[in-house]
Design goal:
mainly alpha; Lysozyme; 3-stranded antiparallel sheet
């Protein structure tokens, strides 16, 4: 019976997500400035890679070094499903480079999807402010966004504060801290890069800590993990200060940086202000703010990479 209930919930979520994607595609055609494509190439490729060093070489060949990316701001749409187990065996410098190379396209993709939602929402918000009537498609889209971002009021202002991107530098820094540059057991076995925990009563995918009863959220892919982390910042009650600060910066037409928003994340970790300073230090030491404006090279084909080792599955009683 429980299995059937879970299946029904999953089907409902898939339908809900599919409807939003469908309406987003339709409305982005109506609002051409909101339409985006990760790549203009008609080709996409799937590769299996077994070794972390081989994956690093693959990124260098297609995208260039991180120093080059900081200068030209171009990255290739290369999406890695999970971290290579051999990441831990690399020397520290290469390990850091590869971790950033893997995460950059994923964070950029999630942010682009949110940007498109925000772009359309902004047009609808302006239309409402001008006392113009929304079409049925626009109203349906607005209602679905309210449900997705858990806004109960009719305020598009509140919705706009939630439908917004997160600085790449901030996502990278928190991924680095929470996963130990991708070497933690949670990151390697459960794609858990951001230290998100499940409630004690939750039966969602998770890994148990070796000591204690803490449940760390586990995911099928790095993309799923990153999407959930950014969604958490956008809807979580504890992160209302982050959203308020981001909204003020937008209104004042100032840069929304990871360093500035880090000041609002004392509640993300039990160590509070020390955690805030750690985020800011990681961003500064690794010059992560320079990645905030990267974009995909439009002519590059999309590449999906599967790490050809034991897949990140829920086995050995680590997952429930």
């Amino acid at each position: 019976m429980v299995g059937k209930k879970v299946l029904v919930v999953l089907l409902c979520l898939l339908c809900f997500t599919g409807v939003i994607a469908w309406l987003t595609d339709i409305l982005s055609s109506d609002h051409a400035e909101c339409k985006y494509r990760i790549s203009t190439s008609e080709y996409s490729y799937h590769f299996k890679i077994t070794d972390a060093r081989q994956l690093h070489d693959f990124f260098i060949f297609h995208t260039g070094s991180l120093q080059q990316i900081k200068i030209n701001k171009n990255i290739s749409p290369i999406f890695t499903r999970s971290l290579p187990r051999s990441l831990k065996s690399l020397d520290m410098e290469m390990k850091k480079e590869l971790f950033i190379e893997i995460l950059l396209p994923v964070i950029t993709k999630v942010n682009l999807e949110i940007w498109q939602e925000r772009c359309i929402l902004s047009r609808l918000h302006n239309k409402i402010q001008q006392y113009r009537t929304l079409t049925w498609k626009e109203q349906a889209y607005l209602n679905l966004l309210k449900k997705k971002y858990m806004v109960n009021s009719n305020s598009t202002e509140e919705l706009l504060s939630r439908v917004d991107t997160v600085p790449i530098s901030l996502a990278l820094a928190q991924g680095i801290i929470e996963s130990g540059w991708g070497t933690s057991r949670f990151a390697r076995h459960g794609n858990a890069l951001y230290g998100v925990h499940r409630p004690s009563q939750s039966n969602d995918k998770h890994m148990k800590s070796l000591q204690g009863e803490a449940k760390v959220a586990a995911y099928n892919s790095i993309l799923e993990s990153t999407s959930h982390y950014i969604r958490l910042l956008n809807i979580g009650k504890a992160y209302a200060p982050l959203r308020a600060k981001r909204k003020r910066l937008r209104a004042e037409k100032q840069q929304v940086s990871g360093t500035i928003l880090a000041n609002t994340l004392g509640t993300y970790s039990e160590i509070g202000e020390t955690y805030v300073q750690t985020i800011k230090s990681v961003i500064s030491r690794n010059q992560l703010e320079q990645f905030n404006t990267v974009h995909f090279q439009q002519q590059e084909p999309i590449v999906h990479i599967t790490i050809n080792s034991r897949a990140a599955g829920y086995t050995n009683n680590l997952y429930l």
